[in-house]
Amino acid sequence: MKVVHIVIVKFKPEVTDDIKEEALKDILALKNTIPQITDISAGKNFTDRGKGYEYGWVIEIEKKEDLPVYANHQSHLDFLAKYKATFEDVLAFDYEK
Q1: In the beta sheet, which residues pair with residue 40?
Q2: pTM score, two decimals?
Q3: Edge to edge, what strands does the sheet with 87-96 contain?
Q4: Blockwise average pLDDT, block size 10, the chain, 97 residues
Q5: Which domain holds residue 36?
Q6: What CATH number has the domain bearing residue 74?
Q7: Catalytic residue among 5, 53, 55, 73, which?
Q8: Which residues are CB-neighbours of 95 under 8 A, at least 6 positions away?
Q9: DSSP letter (8 states) at residue 31
Q10: Residues near 79 by Cβ (< 8 Å), separated by ≥ 6?
Q11: What total of structural domains would you count in the chain?
Q12: Which of 30, 41, 46, 67 is the most exposed, fewest CB within 10 Å of its CB?
C-alpha cells in the first residue's frame, strides 16, 4: 500500500510571495533526492475555503515503513531548516491507499 502524505501550510504574514514560491519549488525538488518519493505535487490554494492556509503539497511514498526514511532524509531536514520558521501553522495528514 502506498502512503499519501499531505501538508497544508499557513505562512507567517510577513513572508513574501517570492519565499512562498521558492518553498514550493524546493518541496517539488525533494523527488530528485529522496528515492522513496514516488510522486509529488504542490500548489497555491485558489478557493475561499482555505481558512488562511495558502499552500499545500501531496507526496506519495511507496510504503508506510518509508515515511520515517523520508521524514529523516537530509534533503527533507534541510527543507525544514530553511522554511520551518516561515510557517505560522502546518497541517499534516497521512493515509494509505
Answers
A1: 59
A2: 0.92
A3: 37-44, 55-61, 3-11, 87-96
A4: 96 97 98 97 96 96 94 98 98 95
A5: 3-96
A6: 3.30.70.100
A7: 73
A8: 3, 4
A9: G
A10: 23, 26, 27, 30
A11: 1
A12: 46
